[in-house]
């Protein structure tokens, strides 16, 4: 979903959550979305790895 709709600037993928049909109040975050910084990365770059991932953050999923 993130790869196919990444060009749509109105979507905040960091706020994307899932919930069961009968438990819509219980949400599960999909993406880590931690801010990234450093040389070569734009200031607003965010982690694109799944929430709860092992290892360090990265702009693209591993």
How would you describe this structure to a colleague?
The chain is mainly β and 62 residues long. It has one domain. 6% of the residues lie in helices and 18% in strands. The chain contains one helix and two strands, in the order H-E-E. The chain has one helix spanning 2-5; strands at 17-20, 23-29. Strands 1-2 form a two-stranded antiparallel sheet. A hairpin with a 2-residue loop joins strand 1 (17-20) and strand 2.
Write the layout of secondary structure elements.
Elements lengths: L1 H4 L11 E4 L2 E7 L33
Antiparallel strand pairs: 1-2
Strand line-up in the sheet with most strands:
1-2
Largest sheet, if any? 2 strands, antiparallel
- Any low-confidence stretches, pLDDT <50, length ≥5? none
SSE string, helices as H and strands as E:
HEE
Beginning-to-end CA distance, first to last residue: 15 Å
Whole-number count of domains: 1
Q: What is the global morphology?
A: globular
Mean pLDDT across all amino acids: 78
Helical content (DSSP H or I, runs of 4+): under 10%
Classify the beta-strand content into a percent band. Answer: 15-25%
Secondary structure class reads mainly beta
* Total helical elements: 1
Instruction: Report the C-alpha radius of gyration, rounded.
Output: 13 Å
Number of strands: 2
């Amino acid at each position: 979903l993130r790869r196919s709709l990444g060009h749509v600037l109105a979507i905040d993928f960091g706020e994307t959550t899932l919930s069961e049909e009968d438990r819509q109040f219980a949400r599960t975050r999909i993406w880590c979305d931690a801010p990234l910084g450093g040389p070569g990365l734009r200031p607003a770059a965010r982690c694109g790895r799944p929430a709860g991932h092992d290892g360090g953050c990265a702009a693209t999923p591993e």
